[in-house]
Amino acid sequence: MIITVAGAGTWGTALGRALSQKGYEIRIWSRFQEETDRLSAERKHPNLPGVKIPEEIVFTSDIGKAAAGADYLLMVVPSVYTRETIRDFAPYIEDKMVLISAAKGIEKDTLMTLTEVLRDELKAAGKKNQAVALSGPTHAEEVARDLPTLIVCACEDMDCAAGVQQLFDGTCIRPYINPDEKGVQICGALKNVEALAVGIARGLGYGDNTCAAMITRGMEEIRRLGLAMGCREKTFFGLAGIGDLIVTATSQHSRNNRAGYLIGQGKSVEEAVREIGMVVEGMNALPAAVTLCERYGMDMPLINAVRLIVNEHAKPSDVVNELMNRSLKTE
Ligand SMILES: NC(=O)c1ccc[n+]([C@@H]2O[C@H](COP(=O)([O-])OP(=O)(O)OC[C@H]3O[C@@H](n4cnc5c(N)ncnc54)[C@H](O)[C@@H]3O)[C@@H](O)[C@H]2O)c1
Ligand SMILES: O=P(O)(O)OC[C@H](O)CO
Q1: What is the tens place of the pLDDT at every residue in 277-331?
Q2: Which pTM does this prediction carry?
Q3: CB 183 within 8 A of CB 232
Q4: Residue 12's pLDDT band (cuts 50, 70, 90)
Q5: What's the gap between Cα 182 and its chain centre?
Q6: CATH number of 182-324
Q7: pLDDT reported for residue 136
Q8: Which of 65, 77, 94, 186 has the most CB atoms lying inside 10 A of its own CB?
Q9: What local confidence, expressed as pLDDT, does residue 206 receive?
Q10: Could you tell me where in the chain the CATH 3.40.50.720 domains are found?
């Protein structure tokens, strides 16, 4: 079995490493040759300290070499680069190849999920390969240390999802399948915005009560939107829903939570993102989240709070005051 991983960040590296333990041939591609040269030579990732990358994993910036004969293509570049990356891969994609989308985001202009973006580009290239979304509470820092982790393989074609489930079975990642491809990806993208909100609250010095309330109400606003979009209610209470929101909003590893914290502490959005030094997908997902709220006529107070702070430079403490003084509601 040959698996090509597009993206040599923390997640692509952790997934490649986990799958290599099953004896699969793993090739990790990055657009940047200096990145693949460094990873190949050093066998460690700068953001995965203490983790050894197996010698068998091949790093390359050559798409033809990365894709030749591969059975699976795991897409793990930040969401904003998904379209351009699959467009570059398309000429090298063979009929047997199944795509797996492991990034989290919603395309800003089209509001497509990432598996929709993949299919859209493949269709334009005259191809019909299947695409499966991978999501759940899965920090790379823990998967790279083989800590038990649960993931969801989501595809409307459940046979295809089951194929990806088999792929991961036997690694430290226990895979589940779910036919709600859209719901799983809506959760994966929007939880990052909610986690920014929780991080901001932490940065302001608020406590566990505040964070638990924000996680609960954050999940409720994602659920309401998801139901309006035709997603399956169960998804929101599963690994890709509440599971991923909990880990992102509470983990020391979370890029989104930490970026929010820095903003709550008084850093500008730009300073916070620069300090994290890795992709903060909640920032990328914010425009789509705001447009989805408008399109479906949804009241999403926490997403709106992040919008006010990020886009309109509102003072975080003022935004919290406004949230606390909204009209009284029934739960
Ligand atoms: N890190 C995690 O724990 C984790 C877990 C689950 C999902 N994800 C998702 O995986 C995706 C990747 O996250 P990450 O944490 O690995 O990112 P990262 O910040 O660690 O790495 C980003 C990678 O993007 C690549 N890149 C930059 N510009 C590019 C371009 N123009 N074209 C192609 N590639 C480019 C870089 O080469 C780099 O390797 C995100 O959508 C994230 O939400 C991450
Ligand atoms: O570290 P974050 O905030 O980018 O989150 C990474 C994953 O999505 C957690 O499941």
Answers
A1: 999 999 999 999 999 999 999 999 999 999 999 999 999 999 999 999 999 999 9
A2: 0.98
A3: yes
A4: very high
A5: 14
A6: 1.10.1040.10
A7: 98
A8: 186
A9: 97
A10: 2-179
User: Which residue ranges does the chain devote to CATH 1.10.1040.10?
Assistant: 182-324
- Name the residue at shortest CA distance from atom 21 of ligand 1: 9
CATH superfamily for domain 2-179: NAD(P)-binding Rossmann-like Domain (3.40.50.720)
Atom of ligand 2 nearest to the CA of 278: 4
Q: One of 22, 191, 267, 329 is an active-site residue; which one?
A: 191
CB-ligand 1 contact for 237 (6 Å cutoff) = no
Tell me, what's the ipTM?
0.99
